[in-house]
Amino acid sequence: MTPGGHAHPHPPTASHRHDHAHGGHGHSHGLVDPSIKRSREGMRAVVASLLVLGLAAGAQAVVFVLSGSVALLADLIHNVGDAATAIPLGIAFALRSWRAERIAGLFVVLAIFVSACVAGYEAITRLVHPEAVTHLAALAAAGAVGFVGNWLAAGIRTRAGQRLDSPALIADGNHARADAYVSLAVIASAVVVALGLPIADPLIGLAITLVILRITWDSWHTVRRDGGHAHPHGDYGHPHAAPEH
To answer: How many C-beta atoms lie closer than 10 Å to residue 80's C-beta?
Structure first.
């Protein structure tokens, strides 16, 4: 304020005018918007995990061609279908939408639960109607590939989910981890059947079902949690869309 009572003794600078043009919010050109960085990092995690799972599925497909195992084909189709759950999460990150991310997380939890139901059904069916398990070496090899692929994908998703504070991405990491346990069960089943204990195959399946149900429960709480702050329901870029720590 000047002695004559006039404000702004000097003309406003270009940066000052720029700040007022944006409602008083300054912008630092040359820095990537946090919402864009979050979207890009989330997309990278989703794509990287899908690439790992794709390579694992490709290796399993090669084993299937060499062995012709129907059981292996079923496991392969199961893993490919589970990898597809990352698609809605990738779309949510691309849209930079908290709401879409939350919906994707709920979809992932549902997919884990369905995996548990399918595993339990198959185990009970084999208990009631025992079937000979063949191509043991091929099944063990495919199980090992599936375990490594899903475990790596789980690590990628979980670490990114923790960095981004994304319950949906953490839940998808849990999903891949559940699939890794299923693949581990394939290896265990091949071993016990080779040792002459075919009844252990469905029992292992039931045990894995319980593990997946526990993962479903934990993932449900992960997606629903507030984590010390409330995620809003708008887009990342909305003035009130960033999580408050």
So the answer is: 15
Tell me the CATH number at 104: 1.20.1510.10
Residue 14 domain-assigned (yes or no): no
Written as tens digits, the pLDDT of the chain (245 aa) is 555 555 555 555 544 444 444 444 444 445 667 888 889 999 999 999 999 998 998 888 888 887 776 667 767 777 777 778 888 889 999 998 888 988 999 998 998 898 888 888 888 988 898 877 778 888 888 889 999 999 999 999 999 999 998 999 999 999 888 888 888 888 888 898 899 988 888 888 888 889 889 999 999 999 887 444 445 555 655 544 444 44
State whether residue 33 is helix, strand or coil. coil
DSSP string, 207-230: HHHHHHHHHHHHHHHHHH--TTS-
12: in domain: no
Domain limits for position 194: 33-224
Domain assignment present for 22? no
Query: Residues 6 or more apart from 3 whose CB is under 8 A from it?
Result: none
Bridge partners, residue 235, by sequence: 97
Q: Which residue type sits at 57?
A: A
**Structure-block tokens of residue 179:** 């699939």
